[in-house]
Amino acid sequence: MAVALVLVLIVVGSVLFHLLSPWWWTPIASNWAYIDNTIIITFWITGFVFAAVVLFMAYCVFRFRHREGNRAAYEPENKRLESWLTIVTAVGVTALLVPGLFVWSRFVHVPSDATDVEVVGQQWQWSFRLPGKDGKLGTSDTRDVTADNPLGVIASDPNGQDDVVVEAADLHLPVGKPVKMLLRSIDVLHDFYVPEFRAKMDMIPGSVTYFWFTPTKTGTFQVLCAELCGQGHPLMHGVVMVDTQQDYVAWLGQQQTFAQLSAPQQTGSADQAPGKTTASGLKIAARLETVGSR
Amino acid sequence: MSVILVFLLVIAGFAGWWLSHQRLMTKPWLEQGLASDFVGFDRSALPTAKIGLGVFLAVVGCLFALFTSAYFMRMAVSDWQPLPLPGLLWLNTGVLVLSSVALQCAVVAARKRQIDMVRLGLATAGLTALAFLIGQLIAWRQLTEDGYLLSSNPANSFFYLITGMHGLHILGGLVGLGRTTAGAWNGARPERLRLSVELCAMYWHFLLFVWLAIFALLAGWAATFIDICRQLLT
Amino acid sequence: MVDITPADGIPPAEVAEVELYHPHSWWTKYVFSQDAKVIAIQYSATATGIGLVALVLSWLMRLQLGFPGTFDFITPEAYYQFITMHGMIMVIYLLTALFLGGFGNYLIPLMVGARDMVFPYVNMLSYWIYLLAVLVLVSSFFAPGGPTGAGWTLYPPQAIMSGTPGGQDWGIILMLSSLILFIIGFTMGGLNYVVTVLQGRTRGMTMMRLPLTVWGIFTATVMALLAFPALFVASVMMLLDRVLGTSFFMPAISEMGEQLPHNGGSPILFQHLFWFFGHPEVYIVALPAFGIVSDLISTHARKNIFGYRMMVWAIVGIGALSFVVWAHHMYVSGMHPYFGFFFATTTLIIAIPTAIKVYNWVLTLWRGDIHLTIPMLFALAFIVTFVNGGLTGLFLGNVVVDVPLSDTMFVVAHFHMVMGVAPILVVFGAIYHWYPKATGRMLNETLGRFHFWVTFLGAYLIFFPMHYLGLMGVPRRYAELTDMTIMTESAHHLNSFISIMAFIVGFAQMVFLFNLIWSIRHGREAGGNPWRATTLEWQTPQTPPAHGNFGKDLPIVYRWAYDYSVPGAKEDFIPQNMPGSFGPSREPA
């Protein structure tokens, strides 16, 4: 009896928790509402299956519990029932898979009007690079990374000279314009993750990965690193500000290009970069040192 | 990862063949009584030790298939510079073939219970296998002296890694061969000796096959061959 | 060490009792024993011991997550060492070793009607190498720099770099060496499990008469033998990268302003190798659990397992399919996005045979005669947690849904539910079920029920709400959840609640351990077949079974493993070795 009751309570409790708990995803700020919808579909189907199986079990435990003189039925198999269950399951799985693959196909096909934005991860900070007037990002190489060229932009590439470099500072994006995030790392794996945008992708040293999205809401969003990258991992925060077109242009005007930064007189450290709200990677490293020596 | 998938397909083929003989479609609840009345799905007639070795060789094969997979994936990166294989490897290959042949002779002799021939075969196989290992070490030395160091290029790293792994397996085989040889001199029972010699031969032939595959891989023929296949397919 | 092998190289599984080798001294009987049952207990005890270490580590992690900033000694460095060792120990050194080394060794020879494993000497070596692997692993706690903190996935480049605890110290080297040893030791044991099922079966024991426990362990072992080499290859290559400076996995790296000497290596290659092992590993743990739980349900519901053939096909099918789904762990790893279509499809296809297994378990309950014994309670709890964890797997397997959820607490909750809690519940159920056979005494019922309710409900309360933290976007592997805009006040409270539950559940395990030890002396006498079960291990002449298992003559098998409540039979079970014909419309013997 008690067991059957507990099983029913587990179903009821889980459903109530799902419906009433305050823990739910953050309000979406990108075009990936498709993903949310797919999750909702998945919740419905899986929730139904979970409730059905556990409630059926509860019924069995209640109805067929051992009593003196009882004897179990003898039924080695039931082909028809098993085939039906298999078919129903296959249909359910297809109902999950098809929308999933459909949305995935959107996810991997970047619209042609998306602008490139490069994100560079390093222990434990985020830097960004935007194409300059030519609309093209210059090539880069980890081997070219120096204190003066923190992103490893190849100086001989003319495309790279007018690139806007945002080192260890906030990224601004214009609202409503699709962006293709080109992801690069110069040391270990990182993962550029903004919960409100839903999309994420690992950054792999030695290659460039990507994802795309369209910001749909202005505001300030926190960037988290979602791939373990050493002890500073939980502190590797960044900021993305989604601006109106006007604010965005104003911000862009204040940024420096690669050519300007690599000119000899420019040796200012990253800490003085404008619009910076997060700790730089070296500061985090220093903080960890002190924590470690406690 | 295609190499390992092909390898697993072969294993799955064996498994499927075996399963197809296990009457998986029967309804076991309807069959009471002694099952040996239903023919041919008991254990295999092969000696258990051979089956054990067979399973082990599948694992070893899997290991080398994975190394090969990794080799091809790493090869695709631009910093790959194949190293010139020392000519000595050809000689080593010959020596290893000789070793296998000697063991095969020992098997034949063991079946005919010619103990002297068995001893001769075993000793030859052991010595040639040792010679192979020494030859491999000399080849390593030649390469390092020519500046092809372990970490200077991934092609070098893979060369040392894969040949080293193969050498370790030969070394392990030599332990088994040593025990068999000791048995041959100390008068082990003929059936027992025959089984041991057969097991050694099985292992040796397999490692020879692995070596030939590795050699083809390291020399670059395997890649060429796959390219040709790919072109034929597309 | 005389009499290692019996006459003529015939393995002990096949020889008559009189010809079996016998241990001559206390040492060869209890320590360097070649008896699979002793090896099984050695494996189980070692796995439990190291598992306790992992349990304590999980407490330390939960202290940090539930009460951030309260415990100064849990630095980020220490936290990452805790999660890494916790994960690796639980997955490999506890679950794999316990299911295959522990239950495999104990049950395979008994259930197939063999005297022992086919290669007992190799079997003994397997245990000692496993023990060595465990010791190497433990030694890393005492090495300079401590154990590795690279996460149990050990992803390069960070695993071998100075920003990760143990990356440039001994930690990672000891971890990789320990894994290599484990794989060598496991291969020795695995050969035994597979070949004993192939060749050690007694007269009349066809494959289709095997209990599903044996099918599960057998298939899992075959998979493990083929999957572990991938981890071996990855470990050897990473060890070379770390120690000798090769560049298998290490690309050009600029670390904190300093150029490292590596060049061109591929971190993704490691991930492919790792998950080529890692995904089958999930089923290496799950399939034995599937098998065991089938037998528990059937025995304690006094009803044959529903759809035995389907169950066998599903085990084999899942085993085969699990080799072509590995990259679903890598949807957001930056591999070619088109792989996503293929791997999402294969992953969701695997849900079908898995679902069939679940249906058959609950349909076995239908019209059964359900004895709510402790093993049965654990089996029921397994179904609940496994269904829950399996269904959340449909989220993560469906490529685009995985994008926001990957690397969040949702993943942590999912895999703990499906391959942590669910299999461990089966382990408990199995221990309550077979303990009387291994010791001759029953475990204490009251303590057992207490242990069950706290473990089951507690674990559910830990991991069910945790999914919702993941849905909020809380990333996994965060030593600090401070300064995060998504972390609401209530989410911190939820974390504290989870931590408290974790302590309670952990405490219940101490009660269980006490019960295990106490009942050896004080438990109720069990007799040979307390559950009135059909399979061969319950039909041994002695309990606990003596060396050689079956006395003078091996049993002869006349029927399948599930003749419960057969119409026309007097008792509600017919042992496999009982001759005669019962029941409706059956072919004559």
Automatic annotation (TrEMBL), chain A:
Annotated membrane topology: Multi-pass membrane protein
Molecular-function GO term, any one: copper ion binding
Domain Cytochrome oxidase subunit II copper A binding stretches: 112-254
Listed Pfam families: COX2 (PF00116)
One GO-annotated biological process of the protein: ATP synthesis coupled electron transport
Signal sequence annotation: none
Protein name: cytochrome-c oxidase
Organism: Rhizobium loti (Mesorhizobium loti)
TrEMBL record, chain B:
Pfam entry (one): COX3
Spans through the membrane: 6-24, 51-73, 88-110, 117-138, 158-178, 199-223
InterPro entries membership: Cyt_c/ubiquinol_Oxase_su3, Cyt_c_oxidase-like_su3, Cyt_c_oxidase_su3-like_sf, Cyt_c_oxidase_su3_a-hlx
Main location: membrane
Subcellular location: Cell membrane; Membrane
Keywords carried by this UniProt record: Membrane, Transmembrane, Transmembrane helix
GO biological process assignments: aerobic electron transport chain
Organism field: Rhizobium loti (Mesorhizobium loti)
Annotated ranges, domain Heme-copper oxidase subunit III family profile: 1-223
The protein's name in its UniProt record: Cytochrome c oxidase subunit 3
Membrane topology: Multi-pass membrane protein
Entry similarity comment: Belongs to the cytochrome c oxidase subunit 3 family.
One cellular component term from this protein's GO annotations in UniProt: plasma membrane
Gene Ontology molecular function: any one: cytochrome-c oxidase activity
From TrEMBL, chain C:
A GO biological process held by the record: electron transport coupled proton transport
Pathway note: Energy metabolism; oxidative phosphorylation
EC supergroup of this enzyme: translocase
GO cellular component: plasma membrane
Pfam families, sorted: COX1
Keywords for this protein: Cell membrane, Copper, Electron transport, Heme, Iron, Membrane, Metal-binding, Respiratory chain, Translocase, Transmembrane, Transmembrane helix, Transport
Nucleotide-binding found in the keyword field: no
Enzyme nomenclature, EC number: 7.1.1.9
Membrane-topology annotation of the record: Multi-pass membrane protein
Residue span, Cytochrome oxidase subunit I profile domain: 21-558
Gene3D superfamilies: Cytochrome c oxidase-like, subunit I domain
GO MF assignments: cytochrome-c oxidase activity; heme binding; metal ion binding
Compartment annotation: Cell membrane; Membrane
Domain of life where this protein originates: Bacteria
Protein's job: Cytochrome c oxidase is the component of the respiratory chain that catalyzes the reduction of oxygen to water. Subunits 1-3 form the functional core of the enzyme complex. CO I is the catalytic subunit of the enzyme. Electrons originating in cytochrome c are transferred via the copper A center of subunit 2 and heme A of subunit 1 to the bimetallic center formed by heme A3 and copper B.
NCBIfam families in alphabetical order: CtaD_CoxA
Family: Belongs to the heme-copper respiratory oxidase family.
Protein name from the UniProt record: Cytochrome c oxidase subunit 1
Organism: Rhizobium loti
